[in-house]
Design a protein that fits this description.
By secondary structure, this protein is of the alpha/beta class. The chain folds into two domains: 138 residues, VKOR domain (de novo design (two linked rop proteins), Up-down Bundle); 370 residues, TIM Barrel (Alpha-Beta Barrel), CATH 3.20.20. Helices cover 50% and strands 12% of the residues. The strands form four sheets. The protein has an eight-stranded parallel beta barrel, surrounded by five helices. A three-stranded antiparallel beta sheet has the order 7-8-13.
């Protein structure tokens, strides 16, 4: 970076000398010598005509002086960027060089089309401005991404979200899924991706034999019918979950199924595994290629026919078999035993270690080709979760645990009481999940960090939130609610922030940070 910034300073200094020279000539009313090559027709180059034209002065200030100020400021900003770590100067360099290039473009246009002559000194300055802009564009790529994702966030949070939040949450969700699915069939999606996908080797890792470009994934419940598997890569996700999918299709619990608690930064969720069923979704996924790993979240059907544990196990096994047979590429399984929204199959609990043992033993017998991660509850006590983990580690098909699912406790301190009162049913995502999710990541990593891979999930709204989970022991992090509140650029922003946080702590790769605060 030092060499790159030095190169930029050299160019800015050249622009500064050129502009100072023109300013000096302006105030001394001297027209500088104006030929570069006798082969270029003289009628085209006429410094006098350009420098004495009305366009050479704006609001009484000579353009040359404005140019000198611009290059002087740019030189100063580059020096400050070299001397300090303050990002502000780098952002300013990008904006200043973009302004310079735009203004130069305008001035070249005036020379060529209105004055119909060019001044070689002005053209040199324009050339320097264009080169500076192009080099800044490439040299300060990360800062450029940070700037435009911040601009997206501003537009989303101040305009788009305000409109969305006036409309029904489930309606907006289904419109966005349909738009996303459609966009993925058009070349437009690449345009989105080119603005959001930021790759960096410090975020890359291999987890349970699967390559992850970055640690941020979409949690289960957003893409329940697997409609977005071709789209989410372009939002900079490193992986995504589909589902939860069940053996039998389910049209969803009675309304309301989704609501917003803006002050609590939370969503009320009461979907109860609304999905098209394993057979239909497996058929759809079978021949697709995925740019990012896909976690197939499987749970028991929300059906009145399931009243006893052995039947629930058979039902889950049937769904897993369907997916295993269809050979979905680049995928893993999430076993959702913790959904608090099942209205029909409510009585069957896999929180009891003896039931969990029966289920996981049946899964072991399937000899699945892909790893299984168990989606855990966050409303159970440490003792109950420890007992579940004690069982999980005995089963070779299970490679990890996800902490965790929704918050059931309506008295959770992160939930604003006036907001929760509006909902008679449902459980809660977002910030009310964060603290307990972190506590359980800490607990699981401490006890079983050497045996289990942990995926953190719950209340991630920023890079710092994700990093906290990673330092407590999570190898990967999932989210939904943060994206709804902060905007679809959030994933890219988290990844950019994670790169800085890793660097600040002296880690070359994310794997070095996993569990660092909890060893
Ligand atoms: C609309 C919605 C639907 C959800 N459905 C499921 C689901 O089907 N299966 C599941 O395992 N978790 C489901 N969840 C829980 C999320 O996967 C996640 O565990 C929880 O929302 C906490 O993450 P967040 O705070 O980033 O949203 C759902 C969450 C939301 C917001």
């Amino acid at each position: 970076m030092l060499i790159k910034l030095l190169f930029l300073i050299f160019l800015a200094a050249a622009g500064l000398i050129d502009s100072i020279y023109l300013t000096w000539e302006h105030f001394n009313k001297v027209i500088p010598p104006c030929t570069i090559n006798p082969l270029i027709p003289a009628f085209f180059i006429d410094c006098g005509k350009v420098l004495t034209s009305p366009y050479s002065i704006i609001f009484g200030v000579p353009l040359a002086l404005i140019g000198a100020f611009h290059y002087g400021l740019l030189s100063l900003l580059i020096v400050l960027a070299l001397k300090t770590q303050t990002k502000l100067f780098r952002y300013w360099i990008i904006l200043q060089s973009a302004f310079g290039a735009l203004f130069s473009f305008y001035l070249m246009y005036i020379q060529l089309t209105i004055i119909k002559s060019i001044c070689i000194y002005c053209t040199l300055s324009a050339l320097i401005s264009f080169i500076l802009f192009i080099l800044t564009y490439y040299f300060l790529k990360k800062e450029r991404f940070e700037l435009h994702t911040a601009a997206y966030a501003f537009v989303y949070q101040n305009f788009i979200k305000r409109v969305f939040f006036l409309l029904d949450a489930e309606f907006i969700h289904s419109v966005m899924v349909k738009r996303g699915k459609f966009l993925a069939t058009t070349p437009l999606i690449r345009l989105v991706g080119s603005k959001l996908i930021y790759k960096d080797k410090s975020l890359r890792q291999k987890v349970s034999g699967i390559n992850f470009e970055n640690p941020i994934g979409l949690a289960a419940g957003f893409d329940y019918n697997a409609d977005l598997t071709q789209a989410l890569y372009y939002l900079d996700f490193g992986f995504q979950s589909v589902g939860t999918i069940t053996n039998y299709p389910y049209e969803g619990n009675p309304y309301p199924r989704l609501g917003r608690l803006p002050k609590s930064k939370s969503l009320m969720v009461n979907k109860g595994f609304r999905n098209k069923g394993a057979k239909t979704i497996a058929k759809h996924l079978k021949n697709l290629n995925f740019k990012i790993p896909v976690g197939i979240s499987v749970g028991m059907s929300n059906s009145e026919n399931l009243t006893i544990v052995p039947d629930a196990i058979k039902d889950i096994i049937a769904a897993l078999k369907t997916f295993e047979k269809s050979g979905v590429k680049n995928s893993y399984y999430e076993l959702n035993v913790s959904c608090p929204n099942l209205i029909h199959a409510k009585k069957i609990s896999f929180y009891l270690p003896k039931n969990l043992r029966l289920l996981l033993s049946a899964i072991d017998r399937l000899r699945l080709k892909k790893p299984v991660f168990v989606k855990m509850p966050i409303d159970k006590t440490n003792a109950q979760v420890s007992a579940m983990l004690g069982e999980i580690v005995k089963h070779k098909s299970v490679k990890g645990a996800i902490f965790g699912n929704l918050q059931k406790d309506r008295k959770n301190p992160a939930i604003v009481p006036a907001e929760v009162k509006k909902f008679k049913v449902g459980n809660f995502s977002g910030k009310p999940c964060e603290e307990r999710s972190n506590e359980l990541i800490r607990l699981a990593y401490k006890k079983y960090g050497d045996k289990l891979i942990i995926i953190g999930c719950g209340g991630v709204f920023s890079g710092k939130d994700a990093y906290k989970k990673i330092k407590l022991g999570a190898s990967l992090v999932q989210l939904i609610t943060g994206m709804i509140f902060q905007g679809p650029q959030l994933i890219s922003q988290i990844n950019l922030e994670l790169i800085d946080l890793l660097k600040k702590d002296g880690f070359k790769n994310i794997t070095q940070a996993i569990g660092y605060e909890n060893r």
